[in-house]
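User: Can you write out an input/output pair for a complex, sequences first and structure second?

Assistant: Here is one pair. Inputs:
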Amino acid sequence: MPVMPHVTRLLAALRLSTLAIVVVTLFAAVASGPARADALDDALALFLTDKFPDTQKAIGQLVAEAPPQAAAILDALGDNRLLIDPANRVVAYRTAAGAVVDAKTGAPVASADAFKKVRVNNALRAAIDGARGSLTLANPDPEKRLAAAADVFKSRDAKALPALKAQLAKESDPRVADALKLAVAAIVAGSDSTTPAERTAAIEALKARGDPDAANLIDAIGQKATEPEVKAAAESALTNVRTRLMFWGAAQSLWYGLSASSVLLLAAIGLAITFGVMGVINMAHGEMVMLGAYATYVVQSVLPPSLQGWSLAFAIPLAFIVAAVVGVAIERLIIRYLYSRPLETLLATWGVSLILQQTVRTLFGANNRQVSNPPFMSGALHVGGLEITMNRMWIIVLAILVFIGLQLVLRATRFGLQMRAVTQNRRMAAAMGISTARIDMFAFALGSGVAGIAGVALSQIDNVSPNLGQGYIIDSFMVVVFGGVGNLWGTALGALMIGVAGKILEPLIGAVQGQIVLLIVIILFIQKRPRGMFALKGRAVEA
Amino acid sequence: MSRQLDRIGLVFVALLALAAILVPVLALATPEGSAFNIPPYLVQLFGKYLCYAILALALDLVWGYCGILSLGHGAFFALGGYAMGMYLMRQIGARGVYANPILPDFMVFLNWKALPVAWWGFNWFPYAMLLVVLAPGLLALAFGWFAFRSRVTGVYLSIITQAMTFALFKEFFRNDFGFGGNNGLTDFKDVLGFSLQSSSTKVALFSASAIALIAAYFVSRAIIGSKYGKALVAIRDAESRMRFLGYRVENYKLFAFVVSAVMAGIGGALYVPQVGIINPSEFAPANSIEAAIWVAVGGRGTLVGAAIGAIAVNFAKTWFTGVLPEFWLYGLGALFVLVTLFLPRGLLGLLLRPAREKAPTPETPALAIEEGADP
């Protein structure tokens, strides 16, 4: 650590010297009066001597006057493509295509033989880089200016300071002005030769920005400042920014937790239905999810480009149907013969899961399949310090919709009523005339279909491979067992608690450790409440 | 246990004993290339199957006779394997890549300075063997004590044993956990001073596995035949009734669970020197489920059937993955489905006379009534 101040000071000194040169040249240029028609000629004439100080001046003039050719000339100079013919007093450059063109007119020159390159050294290269930045800062397009200011904020390039200030003085767009202020603040933080007023202004600007970079910069200013009032301002701003960062950090963790919960809920809710109604564990449930993801892939590969934006609208029903049909087939062909033997159902469905995985591997190959995000699901939303990725947000929306939909099916339909009856007491329901076999079949179709929908969601955030389902099956079991069967609220709460707890533990002890801790907590929880949080009451529990 | 089953068991034990004697003779005393010579790789392969058979036998003890479908036996097997692997690792000594006399290679690689406490004493064979028994045994004791006391049964128990396996699987993958991380333990040189590369050691390990399997069979047989074993079967068929009759059901289950876990651990300890590696993938939940299908194929509640099932399924796996690799998963999947649907009593069930009143079937009417409300 003790080395650091020296290094930063040395760097600052270096920056300062280049800064001084640019400032001097800028002043020289400004002093020579406002933009004149022959300003470009003057600048070009300075290149002809091919002396470093003259070249430096020429760069300064190009920046100050900003003629339309300036950018191309500076680029050429930086890449050693700027050519001069001192005898005929012509400046030209070689274009990227190899042609030699006149620097002023852009017309090709007759013969390139008499030209020689303009020499540049490291100091000049630094000046050229600064000049290029300044030229973009003065770009008429506000978006470009904004990007340039953001670049300077990141690079903390002290050479850009004069250009920043010049642009700030005449900037009309408030967004760009804010960005410029921030960039100035960032440079001030790294510099030793600023006034207390400048520092206080910089602290204010950084406080408004309020991200970790800003906190570090405020800290740097506070460390360097000798004046007590600047130090105090820095300290209060730092506390303010850190508090806000902590808040946003917690909000971000919560968001990640919600996102993880929504995935868990989607994957587990179908399992909760089948497990709740029939008391059998469907080990092939993960493969229903996987089939849904592959359905999305198939939809995207057969849809014409014009409909790609709507691919999920086709994928969701298809995934539901495919998974539901496979689910019914499993139920009719295997599970219904094993109702009195739940442990063997577990084994048989595990076998089904192996077969389904291998089938998909044979059909689609073992590699990951590319599934793209439709336009409305890509990108991210920024709310304060929170980054909300669109695909995650839509998955949360989907999870909520699926949950509401299932609740409606269970609460408002005749089938739902019968299903709840079978869940609570199969024999009594049968005695009341409910065809339990039919309910089992429909419940299995519903649970599997929902898993298929989960697959559509997962295809948007995970690799679509034959092993997709395996990654979610154990977590889904945990959710169902933790939440308790027979009540979807239990599943929702279980998913929410496991998802959020996982994301809270993750920064503290790491992702893997967090998962292990959660597994242990759930195992211990089951000791206390063997039937989960929302256990069914009544005779059904007495096994 | 029917008399017929006992007879099959004795034949199986006799065959094993014969193999334990004959294989060394044939492998070592006959010249290479002769018709009676058994190549070392085959000895090793069948030695591996015998270790799996021990695991299957252990699982059958709890599943077939106590109704506990443990999906944690793969983990007990792997724990025993790790204890053995740690001993073998310490035996490498200064012959490792980094030639550190104390620290195994991976610790030097991770820049560790001292041997972690968990590794202390593993250079001493009896201590390592003690841990082969204690590590899975104590885990099973703690886990079972909690689970059986709070009456977690059926699929719930299967799911939480799977969660335990999954947690261990994740934990052993971490380098910081101190057991070799992702790569596990490998590069073993010798056991008790005998090189693992020599055919005589391989043959000795095969015989040791055969003898261990015989011992496991007799121990299980003794447990099942005892008064305790009768109570265990009764608990499987009607747990609540046994509880009402005054039996401490959880203690009965716990004893069987711990003995079974220890057996699985011993199987794992014999497995590791024969395959030359132990890594976290042995903890994969899929392995534990596969072990259940070995038992189901051979026949639950038959002991000898479980061992035969393990050998048969693994032989098929070796053969299939060699000839038709992409079809093995279809085959294994179909095995799971078909055996549970059409062969609930396993291969041995086909052989045995259908002595209905004596055959162990969990689907007795009593159970159906008791569990009817909560299938």
